[in-house]
Amino acid sequence: MNKAKVLLEALPYIQKFHNKIFVIKYGGHAMIDENAKNYTAQDIVLLKYVGIKPVIVHGGGPEINRAMEKFGKKPEFIHGLRVTDEETLNIVEMVLTGKINGEIVSRIFKFGGKAVGLSGKSGRIILAKKKRKFIEKDGKKVEVDLGRVGETVEINTELLDILINNNYIPVISPIGIDEKGDAYNLNADTVAGDIASALKAEKLILITDVDGIMEDINDPSTVYKKLTVSDVKRLLKEGKIKGGMIPKVECAIKALESGGVKSVHIINGKIPHALLVEIFTEEGIGTMITKK
Ligand SMILES: Nc1ncnc2c1ncn2[C@@H]1O[C@H](COP(=O)(O)OP(=O)(O)O)[C@@H](O)[C@H]1O
Ligand SMILES: CC(=O)N[C@@H](CCC(=O)OP(=O)(O)O)C(=O)O
């Protein structure tokens, strides 16, 4: 394709999204190598340069697993949530806030962007409380103790508004704080959805390691380009959406139905510049979910 044509195709989208907030959740599975990390950071910087306001929420599940193993601890998950004892919480904060957050900030800086690294504790962005989790056992609902796993009580946008309005790119780790000042480990997808709703974001973009939501999880050619909330609810009921994709679509539904977010996108961070292709082309590259 003619290079100028490619750029011109982006023009209506650049106009449409000027000054709009995009919350981008950068998942641990998408942070695979230097190239993939560079593409994502470059795309975020370009979004900022064309007048979009990106806000980054990151995960880092695989790196937390590796760190836990180094400390002789075995990662354990219940319905996709990491069982988090005190020692694990320290490892989670060390890896997410202490390492990955700073790396993303540096990489954005390397490509010309001004990012500010924060945990959800900073400025009390994520007011959290302990999450109570119930599972089905022998046909009965029983409570399981996930330790220091939290859920959002409230997102405080004050600090984020200041940063966004002064042209910074906030980069947030999914650690919350409760009224007493205790820290909690939260699922990064859920946090991204909550922050997107609180900021009244135009888009919530989830960067992961699969091409989008697939009809058949083993066949990438079955990726859905566009889905509505009711399509997603049907796929959930049919058991076609599993594992780590469940919290993603749950937060997508919540952000679209009650958060005022216009669209949620699930894209593959391993594809070069997937973010730009999804946002600035008609056909996109991943799955776009809308309310109707
Ligand atoms: N219908 C589906 N379409 C695509 N992926 C699916 C589907 N159902 C389950 N998945 C799984 O969800 C995973 C993405 O979630 P997860 O591993 O938690 O990613 P991340 O670390 O990026 O948050 C995929 O790798 C895939 O195995
Ligand atoms: C409670 C809980 O499970 N928290 C997650 C936080 C990181 C995360 O969500 O990372 P990904 O997006 O890379 O999966 C965890 O400890 O792994």
Give structural notes:
The chain is of the alpha/beta class and 292 residues long. The protein has a single domain (3-288), classed as Carbamate kinase (3-Layer(aba) Sandwich). The chain is built from 9 helices and 16 strands. Strands 5-10-2-1-13-15-16-14 form an 8-stranded mixed beta sheet, with helices on both faces. Strands 3-4 form a two-stranded antiparallel ribbon. Strands 6-9 form a two-stranded antiparallel sheet. Strand 7 and strand 8 form a beta hairpin. The longest helix has 25 residues, at 86-110. It is globular. The mean pLDDT is 96. It is found in: Cytoplasm. Pathway: Amino-acid biosynthesis; L-arginine biosynthesis; N(2)-acetyl-L-ornithine from L-glutamate: step 2/4. GO terms for molecular function: acetylglutamate kinase activity; ATP binding. The record marks 25, 248 as: Transition state stabilizer. Keywords: Amino-acid biosynthesis, Arginine biosynthesis, ATP-binding, Cytoplasm, Kinase, Nucleotide-binding, Transferase.
**Count the strands?**
16
**CATH 2nd-level architecture:** 3-Layer(aba) Sandwich
Strand content: 15-25%
Structural class: alpha/beta
Shape: globular
N-to-C terminal Cα separation, in Å?
33 Å
Q: What kind of sheet is the major sheet?
A: 8 strands, mixed
- Identify the CATH class: Alpha Beta
How many structural domains? 1
Q: Give the distinct bound molecules.
A: adenosine-5'-diphosphate, N-acetyl-L-glutamyl 5-phosphate
Mean pLDDT: 96
Rg estimate, integer Å? 18 Å
**Unreliable runs, pLDDT <50, ≥5 residues?**
none
Helix content: 25-40%
Q: Please give the count of helices.
A: 9
Which fold name is given in CATH as the topology?
Carbamate kinase
- Report the CATH superfamily: Acetylglutamate kinase-like
Strand order of the largest sheet: 5-10-2-1-13-15-16-14
Pathway: Amino-acid biosynthesis; L-arginine biosynthesis; N(2)-acetyl-L-ornithine from L-glutamate: step 2/4
Function: Catalyzes the ATP-dependent phosphorylation of N-acetyl-L-glutamate.
Family: Belongs to the acetylglutamate kinase family. ArgB subfamily.
Keywords: Amino-acid biosynthesis, Arginine biosynthesis, ATP-binding, Cytoplasm, Kinase, Nucleotide-binding, Transferase
